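ok, trying the design again with the full structure, not the truncated one.
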């Protein structure tokens, strides 16, 4: 029965029954001529999720990491300089990928718990008079630290120096859960995956690609085959892929977009904001600290929480799983053993969030953490009740 418990890892997220049923399809002919009637409208609808009218949407059978690789290999050449800040595990992994592709990576080291340093980007870009920097890479929502960065400020830093570099953004744990404005923020490639805000299993990389990024393919010399944008777009025009597509995942993605539109994207974002604030109230009631350094950096999809000195967060998450059958995110990188993560994105409600808060409280009490049993639950309940009262008053 433990399989009925929701997960509170920051992805993959809980899969709603509506999406599981949509993917419960018999084998279909992925080269059938009517597939274009399925694929083309879905790709068009995804533009609304990215908030782009001028960009194109490209998908690949991969995780978000495959989307990163597609972004850099389609637009850059070995030896090109890219600028990136390291402030969490996922910005670190993007750096590693760029180095493996023989790019010249300039790194701005940033404390974990901070966001993308727009001011330092501005200084470096202003000093790059010869425009050697070809792309700026930013993680919108750092899943390891629960930190959201101001992408508009990064674009502002680029515009202030009139720098022509492309802007690539990892929005894997933010898109379809938090506001994201591809066009308004001047994002050239936005990379996400199917397993977080889209509430599906891992297996699809989904990218929004601007016309500037598309044009960069004309000179890009990084090797690419599986992740070639042009091959994929040409095949998509006929309703297919250049190779065998994940048909059931595509059916799930189509249904997910319909679910998001049924709820309304603004309502989706508001729900995530409520869930997140309730979790943060619980963390405060426990007397714990978030990894995110300031309120404006708090993520609405994941809260990374430090445990008190003398406690091992891995012991806590293991105990929650072994004793109560519920999963929470472990600390990554330098946060390993020092923090755990509560994922609050995707298919979640306030009642489900309360079950996670109550369960991790029980696990902490079992391990003699200095908390009062029920304190976090009560704090979250009071917030959720107050929000519901406002909602009911508006509806009256």
């Amino acid at each position: 029965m433990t399989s009925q418990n929701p997960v509170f890892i920051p992805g993959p997220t809980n899969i709603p029954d509506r999406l599981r049923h949509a993917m419960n399809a018999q084998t279909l002919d992925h080269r059938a001529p009517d597939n274009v009637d399925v694929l083309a409208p879905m790709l068009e609808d995804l533009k609304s999720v990215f908030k782009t009218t001028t960009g194109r949407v490209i998908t690949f059978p991969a995780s978000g990491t495959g989307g990163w690789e597609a972004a850099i290999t389609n637009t850059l050449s070995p030896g090109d300089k890219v600028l990136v800040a390291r402030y969490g595990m996922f910005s670190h992994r993007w750096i590693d990928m760029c180095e493996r592709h023989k790019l010249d990576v300039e790194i701005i080291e940033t404390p974990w718990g901070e966001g993308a340093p727009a001011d330092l980007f501005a200084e470096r870009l202003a000093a790059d008079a010869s425009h050697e920097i070809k792309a700026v890479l930013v993680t919108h929502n750092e899943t390891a630290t629960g930190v959201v960065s101001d992408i508009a400020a990064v674009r502002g830093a680029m515009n202030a120096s009139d720098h022509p570099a492309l802007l690539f953004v990892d929005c894997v744990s933010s898109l379809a859960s938090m506001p994201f404005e591809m066009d308004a923020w001047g994002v050239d490639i936005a990379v996400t995956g199917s397993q977080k805000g889209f509430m599906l299993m891992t297996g699809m990389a989904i990218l929004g690609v601007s016309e500037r990024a598309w044009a960069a393919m004309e000179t890009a010399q990084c090797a690419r085959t599986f992740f070639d944008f042009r091959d994929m777009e040409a095949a998509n025009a006929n309703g297919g892929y250049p190779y065998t597509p994940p048909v059931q995942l595509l059916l799930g993605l189509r249904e997910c977009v319909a679910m998001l539109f049924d709820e309304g994207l603004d309502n989706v974002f508001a729900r995530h904001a409520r869930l997140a604030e309730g979790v943060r109230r619980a963390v405060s009631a426990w007397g714990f600290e978030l990894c995110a350094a300031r309120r404006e950096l708090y993520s609405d999809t994941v809260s990374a929480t430090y445990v008190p000195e003398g406690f091992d967060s891995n012991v806590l998450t293991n105990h929650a799983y072994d004793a109560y059958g519920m999963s929470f995110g472990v600390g990554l990188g330098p946060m390993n053993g020092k923090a755990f993560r509560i994922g609050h994105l995707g298919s979640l409600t306030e009642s489900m969030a309360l079950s996670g808060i109550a369960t991790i409280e029980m696990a902490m009490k079992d391990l003699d953490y200095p908390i009062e049993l029920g304190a976090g639950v009560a704090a979250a309940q009071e917030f959720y009740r107050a929000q519901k009262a406002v909602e009911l008053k508006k509806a009256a």
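Keeping the full-length input from now on. The two ends are 39 Å apart (CA to CA).
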